[in-house]
Design a protein that fits this description.
four-stranded mixed sheet; 9 strands
């Protein structure tokens, strides 16, 4: 029977397995809560850094609503329910959001979200 032995070799100046996290690590996703009522949205934050933003939209009203921003939209959210929408923002700027149910944006369900 042959028994093999493993030995760790430490080389001065070599990196360690416990090195610091990479500077190129992915940025964390920003989470924003959105409360939808008749006829307005209330966002927990009105701005976020570039990258992924997750909007957690709760319908606290009595009518169905949705939430659209940067070309992405939640499904129609029934009263008392919620939906999650993750959007990637590659550049800074101002991005309009709105409810696409006919008449809702005109009644006030719209605004501008800032990406910095």
């Amino acid at each position: 029977m042959i028994v093999a032995a493993c030995a760790a070799v430490l080389v001065p100046g070599a990196g360690s397995a416990l090195a610091a996290p990479s500077q190129h690590a992915a940025k964390a996703t920003t989470s924003i809560t959105v409360a939808a009522t008749e006829f307005k949205f209330k966002l927990s934050k009105t701005s976020a850094p570039k990258g992924k933003v997750t909007f957690v939209v709760s319908n606290k009203g009595k009518a169905p609503h949705d939430f659209k921003i940067n070309g992405k939209k939640t499904p129609l959210i029934q009263p008392g329910k919620k939906a999650t929408l993750t959007v990637s923002f590659a550049k800074a700027g101002k991005f309009p959001y709105l409810c696409t149910v006919p008449g809702h944006a005109a009644a006030g369900m719209k605004g501008t979200f800032t990406v910095r």
